[in-house]
């Protein structure tokens, strides 16, 4: 008899199902929500790490926020200026953006500057979110979300003493 057994057919179906599952996962079907959550957790972790480092190093750190990214700075006591901790800004995906409130007041975050615009600026960049060597940080509310109106919105906030954690908001108006 020249046919397939039921076991052989089931094995082939399981293999095809596994391959299809891997293809769906690797193509990022659940991508934007997962990627946004990953970015928010990364940012919360970075703020926590900077708070620890500020206490250990007795140095002030800050985050300079733009609509589509952020950069870490430290305060150089010798020059009295903020210096970039690394070259370049951490860019968010094209579909994501940041909004920021400092002490309950919304701030208009700058758009990213091109290379020529950066050179043309006389004033050094100043971070909006400051992390002090005492472990305190600026009271803030930061929303990370998709650019589309009905997209996912995640919030990080702090009263100045506790470290932020990621919370999901409904995306309608200001988060409470």
Automatic annotation (TrEMBL):
One biological process term in Gene Ontology: protein secretion by the type II secretion system
Location of the protein in the cell: Cell inner membrane
Main location group: membrane
Domain of life of the native organism: Bacteria
UniProt membrane topology term: Single-pass membrane protein
Gene3D superfamilies in the record: minor pseudopilin epsh domain
Transmembrane segments: 6-25
Domain General secretion pathway GspH: 39-160
Stored Pfam families: GspH (PF12019), N_methyl (PF07963)
Any one of the GO CC terms: plasma membrane
Keyword annotations: Cell inner membrane, Cell membrane, Membrane, Methylation, Transmembrane, Transmembrane helix
Family classification: Belongs to the GSP H family.
This protein's name: Type II secretion system protein H
Species of provenance: Metapseudomonas furukawaii (Pseudomonas furukawaii)
């Amino acid at each position: 008899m020249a046919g397939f057994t039921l076991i052989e057919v089931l094995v082939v179906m399981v293999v095809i199902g596994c391959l299809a599952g891997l293809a769906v996962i690797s193509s990022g079907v659940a991508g934007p929500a997962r990627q946004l959550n990953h970015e928010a957790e990364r940012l919360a972790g970075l703020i926590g790490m900077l708070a620890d480092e500020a206490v250990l190093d007795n140095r002030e750190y800050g985050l300079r926020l733009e609509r589509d990214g952020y950069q870490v700075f430290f305060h150089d006591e010798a020059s009295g200026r903020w210096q970039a901790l690394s070259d370049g800004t951490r860019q968010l995906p094209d579909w994501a953006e940041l909004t920021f409130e400092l002490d309950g007041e919304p701030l208009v975050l700058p758009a990213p500057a091109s290379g020529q615009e950066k050179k043309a600026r006389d004033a050094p960049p100043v971070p909006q979110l400051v992390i002090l060597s005492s472990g305190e940080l600026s009271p803030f509310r930061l929303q990370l979300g998709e650019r589309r109106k009905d997209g996912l919105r995640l919030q990080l906030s702090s009263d100045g003493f506790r470290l932020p954690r990621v919370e999901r908001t409904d995306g309608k108006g200001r988060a409470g």
